[in-house]
Amino acid sequence: PRLQQAARAGERESVGVEIATMVEGDPETHGQFLAALHAAPMFLAGRERSKTNAIRLTQEGRLSMLELGRRYVERGLLDHANSFGMVRWDELDQLLVDPGSLAATIRQREAAYEELVVLEPPFVFEGEPPSPSTWPRRGGRPAAVARDGDVLQGMPGCPGVARGRARVVLDSYDPTGLEPGDVLVAPITDPSWTPLFVPAGAVIVDVGAPLSHAIIVSRELGIPCVVSVTDATRRLRDGALVEVNGDNGTVTVIES
């Protein structure tokens, strides 16, 4: 990973110099470009540090609430230690003073959550989101398995081209079968997935955005990445030989 990162850093510096030279004739544009070029690494690092600190702070409060929830469960006031997650901010004082008064409300919200969690919300919508009553069940939509020669289109995450066996991993805590050089195929990633990126030759993710976790980690490690490949975890057969092109955001099935 260190060698990959060093190579990417060298490439970035080279391209920066090339573009700066191209706009040298326009002092205002040249100055703005150099300012942005120098500011980007600092602000991106600050963004990640802010997220890290927010997670740490949230965890401190979460541990206290989990202990409180555990005690309420022992007293028969809540069904689960993390049921406090169904309590709104303006109800916290009521929870502390009279937790039993919210028990029925919490159960209703947990039931509603269980109904929603098995549904698939729209990936994109315009205006008001459609009613959950119109959402299909997760995995309920047909997804044809990709065959030899099929090309799945996604969004470029990290440049480069790599071939390897697709390993569909649905749970970061159970990466069974993922070997060095394999292509990690995941539904979505967060920090718990980071160790799985290290041995992977490339990464494919069902959803993602320009500054999503999968893209950031792939760029740090210098491995090709394509995100927003809709239903990749359902369309790519585990063990299929695929080519991941992080330059144009495509995944080509070589051998299904």
Task: Give a concise summary.
By secondary structure, the protein is α/β, with parallel strands linked by helices. It has helices at residues 2-22, 27-74, 92-97, 103-117, 194-197, 213-221, 232-235; strands at residues 151-153, 155-158, 161-168, 183-186, 202-205, 225-227, 241-245, 250-255. It has an 8-stranded mixed sheet with strand order 1-8-7-3-4-5-6-2, with helices on one face.
Write structural notes for this entry.
It is a single chain. The chain has 256 residues and is an alpha/beta fold. It is built from seven helices and eight strands. An eight-stranded mixed beta sheet has the order 1-8-7-3-4-5-6-2, with helices on one face.
Keywords:
eight-stranded mixed β-sheet; 7 helices; alpha/beta; 256 residues; globular; 8 strands
Tell me the fraction of residues in β-strands, as a range.
Answer: 5-15%
Fraction of residues in helix = 40-55%
Number of strands: 8
Per DSSP, the total helix count is 7
